[in-house]
Amino acid sequence: MQVLKTHKTFEGKTQFWEHESVSTKTKMKFSTFIPAGPVRGCLIWLSGLTCTDENFITKAGAQKVLAEKGLMVICPDTSPRGLQLPQEHDSWDFGSGASFYLDATTPGYRDHYRMETYIADELHSLIQKEFNVPANKISIFGHSMGGHGALTLGLRHPQKFVSVSAFSPIVNPVNAPWGVKAFTGYLGENKTVWAEHDATELVRSGKRHPQALLVDQGGDDEFLTKGQLLTDNLTKACKEASQKLEVNMREGYDHSYYFISSFVENHIEFHSRLL
Amino acid sequence: MQVLKTHKTFEGKTQFWEHESVSTKTKMKFSTFIPAGPVRGCLIWLSGLTCTDENFITKAGAQKVLAEKGLMVICPDTSPRGLQLPQEHDSWDFGSGASFYLDATTPGYRDHYRMETYIADELHSLIQKEFNVPANKISIFGHSMGGHGALTLGLRHPQKFVSVSAFSPIVNPVNAPWGVKAFTGYLGENKTVWAEHDATELVRSGKRHPQALLVDQGGDDEFLTKGQLLTDNLTKACKEASQKLEVNMREGYDHSYYFISSFVENHIEFHSRLL
After folding, report:
1. Distance between CA A174 and CA A158 in Å, rounded?
2. What is the CATH number of domain A40-71+80-274?
3. What's the catalysed reaction (chains A, B) (predicted)?
4. B263 Cβ under 8 Å from any chain A Cβ
5. Can A31 be counted among the known catalytic residues?
6. What pLDDT score was predicted for residue A156?
7. How far is CA B247 from each of CA B65, B204, B235, rounded to the nearest angstrom?
């Protein structure tokens, strides 16, 4: 594990890292913010389509409240890099920068796009070993595709993630164009398998998280209008299944980091209370 | 004046604008954040070498405290764009993205690189007319080359800028490699003229600002080590001239926006008290 860059920030450290991943069999990058004092817990942030390990750490304005709460954050890249798989670099919503945080099963992708294993096992262990955070002090949140990742990984591994929240998540990808394209490419045509990586379908099939899930969604988000996010489907499924869920519809806000920065403090406080 | 993009942020608006500048005879871009409630005043932010109107508004994390204080910010681009002047695009520290916020006098540049007039006259008027901020409620701050811009424009036009602050400013460009290159290109070989656009030399020659100048400087800033910033020269000149100056040396911090984000709240509070 190698530090590429360090920037002192709010008395703590913003750092950029690279390591050899056994899950993806590639180098993987991630960024961290580590507060100056004792670290009470770790938040894993999963970014959205086209992002890297840099977006959240440069644009969310989260370091101040993380420092105040004594929490670190780790922001992995959104896919393996440096490969040349079929169609991997042809579009912005599939392949590189668009892993959807699952373990792929299709030829080519199944050898490297193992992002669920990378996040829930490898990175989870690395946080404990390299950053001395106990296994029961790790939570997860994310944005858009990363909101989907946080919700699905949180529901599939509730014992690993103390609390789960999301900004503008893709909550029902089996019914959204982005999800249909990605799941076809990573999982093939069998839609029964797709449902295992869809937050709404997971709740419908009996998966639960012991804590309330927190979702913030911009009311003027173009991808909500275009039917990519489908927030109401998760609300309905959680209500029917008695999974606690808080959805804050934020009037006038869009899909950008300006929206995230406006409410990131609320999300960090939510995780801080439960960690 | 045309809005290119609007993003709701902390209940206010982050916006990107374009207008035809009479000073530069080009289109000019700037970004703004305007809080939701009454606007008490406006801060002009001047960015550093290679930056555009986007850096501060996306990376400084300033919107929250601006919203709390009822202050707007306007962040102009760092030079005219869309031109093809001699050597204009050959290096990152001269020409496009590197105006040094002065009115050039050399052939070619003198027709368009009129950034002092653009900021101190045109933008100053635009803030009053388009954003309804009184002329006596405008302050200025900036980073690196933009810190130089804030200090020199503040000292040259103290009646126009209520308060002046800077992060990692180039305080004595006539004695720094960046400054020598830029001033030669924009002002020619006459060093008497150079001194009129150098904060340290302006203080030495009798220019004053009625308020204390505020400077934050990272102790691990590579450009401080390389002799580009020369912070101590301004400290000495201000002491000798009884110009009030507060310099905060911040141990371990570098030249990046991670540094700026860590102390931007202090700077906004400084301006807020005086506006």
Report:
1. 22
2. 3.40.50.1820
3. S-formylglutathione + H2O = formate + glutathione + H(+)
4. no
5. no
6. 98
7. 22, 18, 8
Average pLDDT over residues B30-55: 98
* Catalytic residue selected from A143, A209, A255, A267: A255
- In tens, the pLDDT along B91-139 reads 999 999 999 999 999 999 999 999 999 999 999 999 999 999 999 999 9
Q: Which residues of chain A have pLDDT under 50?
A: none
| A221 annotated active-site | yes
Q: How far apart are CA A104 and CA A239, in angstroms?
A: 30
Mean pLDDT (chain B, rounded): 98
What torsion do the CA atoms of B130, B135, B141, B146 make, to the nearest 10 degrees? 70
Return the CATH number of B2-274, one of 3.40.50.720, 1.10.3210.10, 3.40.50.11810, 3.40.50.1820. 3.40.50.1820
Mean pLDDT, rounded, for B218-227: 98
Chain B residue with CA closest to A33: the answer is B258
Paired tokens of B92: 């990152």
* A58-84 burial: b if 16+ Cβ within 10 Å, else e: bbbbbbbbbbebbbbbbbbbbbbbebe
Is the CB of A262 inside 8 Å of chain B's CB atoms? yes
Which residue of A55, A250, A261, A268 is the best one to mutate when testing the B interface, meaning the one whose CB has the most B CBs within 10 A?
A: A261
Predicted pLDDT at A151: 98
Give dist(CA A227, CA A230) in Å, integer: 6
Residue among A31, A99, A144, A272 flagged as catalytic: A144
- What is the DSSP secondary structure assignment for residue A56, as one 8-state letter? H
Whole-angstrom distance, CA of residue A170 vs CA of residue A233: 10
Q: What is the interface pTM, i.e. ipTM, of the complex?
A: 0.96
Residues of chain B contacting A10 with CB distance shorter than 8 Å: 261-262
Q: What is the 3-state secondary structure (H, E, C) of chain B?
A: CEEEEEEEECCEEEEEEEEECCCCCCEEEEEEEECCCCCCEEEEEECCCCCCCCHHHHHCCCHHHHHHHCEEEEEECCCCCCCCCCCCCCECCEECCECCCCECCCCCHHHCCEHHHHHHHHHHHHHHHHHCCCHHHEEEEEECHHHHHHHHHHHHCCCCCCCEEEECCCCCHHHCHHHHHHHHHHHCCCHHHHHHHCHHHHHHCCCCCCCCEEEEEECCCHHHHCCCCCHHHHHHHHHHHCCCEEEEEECCCCCCHHHHHHHHHHHHHHHHHHC
Name the strand (E) or helix (H) holding A265: helix A257-274
B209 is known as an active-site residue? no
Q: How confident is the model at residue B71 (pLDDT cuts 50, 70, 90)?
A: very high
What is the pLDDT, as a whole number, of residue B98? 98
**Segment B178-222, tens digit of pLDDT:** 999 999 999 999 999 999 999 999 999 999 999 999 999 999 999
* Residues forming a β-bridge with B2: B18
What per-residue confidence (pLDDT) applies to B180?
A: 98
- In A, minimum Cα distance to B253 occurs at A8
Chain B residues 149-178 with CB within 8 Å of chain A: none
